[in-house]
């Protein structure tokens, strides 16, 4: 952002008012996060007496102990989510960047056809019912790991963002000279194009990774088997039915025969939320700027 | 085979032969688009059929507009249309106003470091899933334990509110939640546009003695307005589609709130999965697709009139 020193600056009073206002907004963004963390660190009996508090009442990490000790299901959901995020992101970046590269190649006669072919899907959306029926009855995705990956791999919006990025950062002459040197299309793409557009690829990768990490919709629609519950969906089930946590605990744990008795339900519920958002919030400062960059590219055209 | 067709085909084949790797590069995308976007389009016919699972969709009997008749006879049809349109309308208006105000304020702030900090924090909610946001909301709204009912309302001398059963607060809660989650994100788009404004405009205004407020009113806002128009029209193009997570997760699927939280998307989901009424669900789904398509075309037409550069097509 450019320095504003050459311009008329806002008055000290206005500046102060803005700081107060944004101070409040900042709190509004952070307090819910803080509330969840603080409840997760509170003693469960105390919570039941006094309700949720914004400060840990009678500090306790029992909820985490409970969640993690009973947590074969949680560990499994974590592992599944990481696997789906990694595989999905790689596939998404690969498919999207290849497709965008084809649309970018001005010398390719069928470029217009492929552009329209993808673009058309952004105009009309068949809606949930046909999508569901195709996924279940035609593609047979129900209750498979593919259901958690494939539907998000191709995204025309990312294709358009990446094509814009390519046309901004890649001169046509590079492709031409690679051709003259006798490089095949795939060699040109992977050896020459990819190294030059890494920041663009990183942006798409982050968008995709967030989508996969935060997804609860695909298991919500297409999964029945508990083996395929990803983290967000498991959290959804726990929130919907706190006893669910005890149920999965009862199934797995051989030691405790009365899981309900020791269940720190309220704090454990929030501990789930902290575990679910943890990686995102921790990694957030690093990838935030890439997002800003990606959005800025998107804003130029689109 | 006719001669003309042959040259056309050989034209395509020659191209395929010449640029085979490029076709191959597009192939995975094409396959996925067919699978998840084009095949479902054929499924739109379900809305005109009485689906018997044992017969399969193609062999199930046609019923004309029966499914639509049933749908529009229910009171739900009106409620879901009203909710979807009004909420999205509110999101477009308040969302853009909040984002523009945020972007202008942040860009004018002298303490650059703080402005960056505010921007980063406001962007954070965008990265949280609606499931996590629902947990956060529950920490505040839970009827017997929630922070609002146990800490804040008593201090104000107010009675606790059964948040998940009381319809009145929900329009406000849903609009606030939408603003909370997306303002930081949208502000970044406007900030990018503000950063792109040529500084000479401001210098000239300064020489003319324009106050800061006048500069904002006569330079920043007019130069942002094309982007505002585009974003608003794109929002209108999607006005028949609701943010499923917001309307399903946040109210925790509470039946008592359906009157103010049910939108077309959640209705379709519930009728399909909960009530297994595929006829009604597909009619509502079709209604949404067609209205959505018409609105996308119309709003793009208007965008193209106003600023051909910004049109989607």
Automatic annotation (TrEMBL), chain A:
PANTHER family: ABC TRANSPORTER PERMEASE PROTEIN MG189-RELATED-RELATED, POLYGALACTURONAN_RHAMNOGALACTURONAN TRANSPORT SYSTEM PERMEASE PROTEIN YTCP. The keyword Cell membrane applies. The chain crosses the membrane at residues 20-41, 77-101, 113-133, 145-168, 189-213, 268-287. It comes from Caldicellulosiruptor hydrothermalis (strain DSM 18901 / VKM B-2411 / 108). GO terms for biological process: transmembrane transport. Keywords: Cell membrane, Membrane, Transmembrane, Transmembrane helix, Transport. Gene3D superfamilies: MetI-like. This is Binding-protein-dependent transport systems inner membrane component. Residues 78-281 form the ABC transmembrane type-1 domain. GO terms for cellular component: plasma membrane. It is a multi-pass membrane protein. The keyword Cell membrane applies. It comes from the Bacteria.
Automatic annotation (TrEMBL), chain B:
GO terms for cellular component: plasma membrane. Keywords: Cell membrane, Membrane, Transmembrane, Transmembrane helix, Transport. The chain crosses the membrane at residues 20-48, 85-106, 127-152, 172-193, 221-241, 278-303. The keyword Lyase does not apply. One of its GO terms (biological process) is transmembrane transport. It comes from the Bacteria. Its main location: membrane. It is a multi-pass membrane protein. Residues 81-299 form the ABC transmembrane type-1 domain. InterPro entries: MetI-like, MetI-like_sf, UgpAE/MalFG_permease. PROSITE patterns: ABC_TM1 (PS50928). It is found in: Cell membrane. Belongs to the binding-protein-dependent transport system permease family. This is Binding-protein-dependent transport systems inner membrane component.
């Amino acid at each position: 952002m450019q320095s504003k020193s050459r311009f008329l600056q806002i008055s000290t009073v206005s500046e102060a008012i803005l700081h107060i206002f944004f101070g409040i907004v900042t709190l509004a963004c952070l307090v819910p996060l803080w509330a969840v963390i603080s409840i997760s660190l509170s003693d469960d009996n105390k919570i039941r007496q006094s309700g949720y508090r914004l400060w840990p009442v009678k500090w306790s990490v029992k909820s985490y102990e409970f969640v993690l000790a009973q947590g074969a299901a949680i560990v499994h959901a974590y592992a599944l989510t990481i696997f789906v995020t990694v595989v999905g992101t790689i596939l998404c970046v690969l498919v999207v960047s290849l497709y965008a590269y084809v649309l970018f190649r001005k010398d390719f006669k069928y470029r217009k056809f492929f552009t329209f072919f993808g673009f058309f899907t952004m105009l009309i959306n068949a809606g949930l019912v046909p999508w569901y029926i195709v996924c279940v009855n035609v593609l047979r995705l129900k209750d498979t790991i593919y259901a958690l990956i494939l539907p998000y791999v191709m995204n025309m919006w990312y294709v358009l963002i990446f094509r814009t990025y390519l046309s901004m950062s890649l001169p046509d002459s590079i492709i031409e000279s690679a051709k003259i040197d006798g490089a095949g299309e795939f060699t040109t793409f992977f050896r020459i194009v990819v190294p030059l557009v890494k920041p663009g690829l990183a942006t798409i990768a982050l968008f995709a990774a967030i989508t996969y990490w935060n997804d609860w919709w695909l298991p919500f629609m297409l999964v029945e088997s508990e083996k395929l519950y990803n983290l967000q969906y498991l959290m959804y089930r726990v929130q919907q039915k706190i006893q669910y946590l005890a149920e999965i605990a009862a199934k797995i744990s051989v030691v405790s025969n009365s899981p309900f008795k020791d269940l720190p339900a309220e704090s454990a519920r929030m501990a789930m939320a902290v575990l679910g958002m943890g990686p995102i919030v921790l990694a957030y400062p690093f990838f935030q700027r890439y997002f800003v960059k990606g959005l800025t590219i998107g804003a130029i055209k689109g | 085979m006719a001669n003309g067709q042959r040259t056309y085909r050989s034209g395509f084949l020659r191209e395929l032969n010449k640029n085979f790797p490029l076709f191959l590069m597009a192939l995975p995308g094409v396959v996925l688009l067919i699978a998840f976007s084009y095949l479902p389009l054929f499924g739109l016919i379900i809305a005109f059929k009485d689906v018997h699972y044992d017969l399969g969709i193609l062999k199930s009997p046609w019923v004309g507009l029966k499914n639509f008749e049933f749908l529009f006879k229910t009171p739900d049809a009106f409620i879901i249309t009203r909710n979807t349109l009004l909420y999205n309308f509110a999101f477009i208006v308040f969302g853009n106003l909040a984002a523009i105000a945020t972007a202008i304020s942040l860009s004018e702030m002298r303490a650059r470091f703080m402005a960056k900090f505010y921007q980063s924090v406001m962007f954070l909610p965008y990265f949280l899933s609606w499931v996590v946001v629902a947990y956060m909301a529950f920490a505040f709204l839970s009827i017997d334990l929630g922070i609002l009912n146990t800490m804040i309302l008593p201090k104000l001398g107010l009675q606790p509110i059964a948040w998940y059963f009381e319809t009145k607060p929900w329009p406000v809660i849903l609009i606030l939640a939408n603003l909370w989650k997306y303002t930081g994100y949208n502000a970044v788009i406007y900030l990018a546009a503000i950063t792109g404004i040529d500084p000479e405009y401001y210098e000239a205004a300064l020489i003319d003695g324009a106050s800061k407020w006048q500069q904002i009113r006569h330079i920043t806002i007019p130069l942002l307005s094309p982007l505002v128009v585009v974003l608003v029209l794109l929002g209108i193009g999607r006005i028949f589609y609701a943010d499923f997570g917001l309307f399903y997760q946040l109210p925790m699927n509470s039946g008592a709130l359906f009157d103010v939280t049910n939108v077309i998307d959640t209705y379709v989901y519930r009728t399909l999965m909960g009530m297994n009424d595929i006829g009604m669900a597909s009619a509502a789904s079709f209604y949404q697709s067609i209205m959505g398509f018409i609105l996308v075309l119309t709003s793009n037409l208007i965008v193209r009139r106003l600023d051909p550069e910004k049109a989607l097509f």
